[in-house]
Every structure is written in structure tokens, then in C-alpha cells.
# Entry
Amino acid sequence: MKTVYERADIVPLLAEIFRELGYEGTSLSRITERIGIGKGSLYHFFPGGKQEMAGAVLADVDGWFEHAIYQPLRKDDAREAIAAMWTNVNDYFRSGRRICLVGAFALDETRERFSAEIGDYFIRWIDALRSALMRAGCSEGEAQTLAEEGVAGIQGALVLSRALDDRMVFTRSLDTLAKRFDSVMR
Amino acid sequence: MKTVYERADIVPLLAEIFRELGYEGTSLSRITERIGIGKGSLYHFFPGGKQEMAGAVLADVDGWFEHAIYQPLRKDDAREAIAAMWTNVNDYFRSGRRICLVGAFALDETRERFSAEIGDYFIRWIDALRSALMRAGCSEGEAQTLAEEGVAGIQGALVLSRALDDRMVFTRSLDTLAKRFDSVMR
DNA sequence: CAATCATTGTACCGATCAGTACAATGATAA
DNA sequence: TTATCATTGTACTGATCGGTACAATGATTG
# Structure
């Protein structure tokens, strides 16, 4: 019996494991056990080992945000794109039950391995959000401050809702942030 | 030659290591190497091993916040205590170069080991902040929302400033939060 | 069919993991 | 002094770490 995987099938499964266990906490044995895949397959798709696996996951996450969040913020109707951001972010992070892998990597020494990818992810998020806010009528300084506040607020809401084990905290925080944005944009 | 340590001397050193490396990333060999202490001493003070070390660090952190942040928020002049919170938090987290150990533990499976301590730390922070906000004139609902926003904002600012490797982001975020609090409290 | 090649499971490697055992050291006090 | 006891460094344990080697399998192509 031989189940054939593709690299693209494995990346989302890896993402969930890295999310739950962190980079250091994710061991190859836990990967093989949870995915049901052997080391042979794993190193066939990711010759660079654990580092390449985490890198592929980061690239996948980045790609999702670029397509679903950043591009609409840069190109689409500003108010609609911002409104869509709140709902898409709430869905993506499963109302706070899922964490942000990039944010988690930023907190410990894993940051050193992926500092470029981590920095890029947040820079582009803030820039795209600032672009939308300016098109919605904010001044550049106001937009920059609000964009940082929004992205940081989302990250903090993830920490808080997990710490309190209460998904309502996340949804409520997003709602509060959305109201703040609305009040500034009018 | 024999350098005599006390448990109380070691805890802050352990805290810095757990902060940088995370729970899983902190190995006993890195502890002994960085502190310059042998395993004998380590297990003499912490017979419960790594778990007890991290627990002692969490208790130490919690004690500092209780004394320096929570109690003033509950007892002292509300506006002064909130103002002091921003400056003390900025100092404690070294303008974002230091992370919040409790927040970091909340993000990965380490949460399962210390869920009670982690939840307690944030619950008490939010409660103390809400108490101060209500004494400063906020309604209960307004105070609860703002307290959650403040604590989450601090955690998010830590993630963001580390991700961007820019300490100005942290100081600026605290400043923005402080201004928001001021505008609501008037 | 034969040949090729991607994919797989498993056995194995040296290094490091958390934790234990214990004798040596040094301070304290009778 | 001697006895006691906290503190220490070091050697060791079995388990697990990330990574490699490689033969077996199955699909594809000639």
C-alpha cells in the first residue's frame, strides 16, 4: 500500500503542526505520526529538512494573505476591502482558536531563522492597510498609525483569546477595531 | 572554587533564557552554559526540573506585575496609575526588545502546561485596568472593552516591534494607546 | 515487455535531550 | 576540632533529536 502525496498537500498539514507546537516543539517524529507520512517522503519533498518545511509553510501563509487580504486592500474599494479584512481574518484564525504562525515565530529565536520573511509579512500588511486607509480619506500619518494599531491589535487579540481560552475575546476585539476604523474613516 | 547561588538569584536569569528561546527551545545545556551553573545546582533548587523552573519564572513575573502594575491600578489614583502603567510597561519590556513570557507561552502547546497561570495573569491585568478605568469615569462596558483593548494592544505591539525589529514601533504603539485612553477618560 | 524515475518505509547515525547518581566541596555550628 | 548539611561539578542513563542511506515499490514511458 502506498499513498501518494504531493508537496502542496503536505504544506497545510505542516502549517497546522508548526502552529500548535512552534518551531522547536515540532519534531520530525510528531510530523510523521500526525500526517502519517514517513521520513523518506518528507525529506524527498523538503531536502532542506525542518527549516525548509517551515519556510514552505511561511511562504504558503504569505501567499494566502497576499491574495486574500493585501491585494484587495491595495486595489479594491477601500472601505469594502477593510470590511472584508475583518471577516476574512476572523475566519482564517478561526475566531482565535488558530494562532498567527508568523507572529509566533517572531517572538522566540525562530525569528533569527526567518527574519526576512517575518518582517516582510508585517510590512506588507501594514503598507496595504495604510494604502486603503488613505484612499478612504485618512492623512498619511493618521493612516500609518491606524494601520499599525490594527495589525498589532489583531496579533494581541490572538494572544489574549488563547491565554483566556475564550474565542469571544477575539471576535469582540476585531469588532472593536472595526468600529474604531469606521469612526476615523468617516 | 565554588560560587554560591540562591534560588532567587537564578530565577531572573532563567526568565531571560525562556524569553529568548521559548519553553521548548530552552535546553538544560543552554541554561548551564549561559548561567554558568551545573546541573547539580539546578536540580537542587528545582527538583521538578524544567517545568518547575518555568513555573518559578512565571510566578516571579506575575509577582512583579501584581506589585508594580495591578495593585496601583486597583488602589491608587486611577489616572496616575494608568499613566504609570504605560511607562512601567515600556521600561519592563525594554521598549519592545524584551517579549512577554506569558504571552509567548500562550501561543504554543506550552499553554497546556501553564494554562491556569497564564489565564490568571491576563484576567487580573484586565480586571485591574477595568477597575481603574471605571474610577476614572468609564461605564462598566466601556471600561471592559478598553481594558481588553489595552492589554491586547500591548501584546500585539510586542509581536510587531519584534517582527519589524524596530523598537520605535513599540513606544509609538504605547503612545497611541495612552492617547486613546486619555480621550475616553475625559 | 523493459527501463526509468518519483515516491515510500525502515533501519540507522552521531548528537543532544531531560533527568539521576553521587562523591567532593565548603559553610555552619556544636 | 568534628559533625552536619547545603551546594556543587561531573559522569552517566535511556530516550529522542534532526538527518542520511538505501532498498523496495509503483507509476510512467519507451
Remarks:
- Residues 2, 4, 27-29, 39-40, 43, 49-50 of chain B lie near DNA strand C (CB under 10 Å from a C1').
- Chain B touches chain A through 43 residues (CB under 8 Å).
- The longest helix of chain B spans residues 50-75.
